Amino acid sequence: GRLAGNFFSVNLQEVQAAVETLPWVRRVEVRRRWPSRLELGIQEHVPVGRWEDGVIHSGKNELVNSQGEVFIAVLGESEAARLPQLFGPAGTAQEVLRQHKEFVRILAPIGLKPARVRLSPRLAWQIRLENGMLIELGREQSKSPVGARLARFVEIYPGSVGNRQTLPAVIDLRYPNGFALREKG
After folding, report:
1. Residues 133-146, buried b or exposed e (16+ Cβ, 10 A)?
2. Nearest to 55 by CA among 25, 91, 84
3. Rounded to an integer, what distance in angstroms lies between the CA atom of residue 6 and that of residue 3?
């Protein structure tokens, strides 16, 4: 109902804009194909995480696609539960997604996966693992980057934390030369 005209008179930019308003559509290319067709090339959003920046959208999820762009769409509970939660201030989705991928890569050798990655308004990083442990990484530091602190922890994890009877609730990696554990309860 929003478009009018025939093959020759329809405005291709209006067709493109109308299709791009659909929730799962990321980008559209529209061409005339002689003698009487319009050809649409549609690139869809592929969700890789759930996004939270404090804005509430009733009944809809804020999701992050594989390019780090936030979009709003309806997603079933089971599908949403399989996606990691990504938190951060508005405009930081691409950085949070990039860092999430880096954390997944660093934690892979010890078989741990982040279920939630958070960037605070003060730019401090925090990871909640699928096993429930919380890792406090703090802010990026030139002498001790976040990735280096996490990699150091991964090296010593099997012999120190991984062989404990009960896993700690919080692992604090904000220190340049060590870490602290906080027990559950």
Report:
1. bbbbbbeeeeebeb
2. 91
3. 10
- Over residues 106-153, the pLDDT tens digits come to 999 999 999 999 999 999 999 999 999 999 999 998 888 999 999 999
Model confidence pLDDT, tens digit, residues 156-175: 998 888 888 888 999 999 98
Tokens, residue 140: 């990026």
Closest CA to 106 of 117, 91, 119: 117
What are the two backbone dihedrals, phi and then psi, of residue 183, each rounded to the nearest 5 degrees?
A: -75, 160
The model scores a pTM over 0.70:
yes
Give alpha helix (H) positions in 37-145.
Answer: 77-82, 93-107
* Longest distance between any two alpha carbons in the chain, whole Å: 73
Helix/strand/coil (H/E/C) assignment for every residue in the chain: CCCCCCCCCCCHHHHHHHHHCCCCEEEEEEEEECCCEEEEEEEECCEEEEEECCCCCCCCEEEEECCCCEEEECCCHHHHHHCCEEECCCCCHHHHHHHHHHHHHHHHHHCCCEEEEEECCCCEEEEEECCCCEEEEEECCCCCCHHHHHHHHHHHHHHHCCCCCCCCCEEECCCCCCCEEECCC
Asked if residue 166 lies in contact with residue 181, where contact means CB atoms within 8 angstroms, the answer is: no
